[in-house]
Amino acid sequence: MAARTLASCIFCKIIKGEIPSFKLIETDLSYSFLDIGPLSKGHALVIPKDHTVKMHELPDNYLADVLPVAKKIAVALGAENYNILQNNGRIAHQEVDHVHFHVIPKPSATDEEGLVIGWPAQKADMDDLKKFHQEVLSKL
Question: Where is the signal peptide (predicted)?
Fold first, then answer.
């Protein structure tokens, strides 16, 4: 079965070879390549060949493919410290409307290379958390 692609999607064009890329690993389901706007040396992207905008829209079999590909890339890079990042939607920092997973090496503790994030954790109200837990469980 051929992958669904979107004519205007930059990642679909990369998969089809219409835009050149520094390809790393290609499987039946995934295509990976070096990011041309890297946060650090070795920053790579792993994308499904099937055009899908958000992760929850992907078939489950793809998710079983993407992490082994990301793992192989991290190992090949010799990345002892790295982030696997995946964003869904504009306010969650998704810039390209095609699911993609970043493999971002973090070579040093400085904020000069790799992913730089804040983690604005909040104290949860345990009663609210318990109620919310039950609500989510009822939908799983």
Answer: none
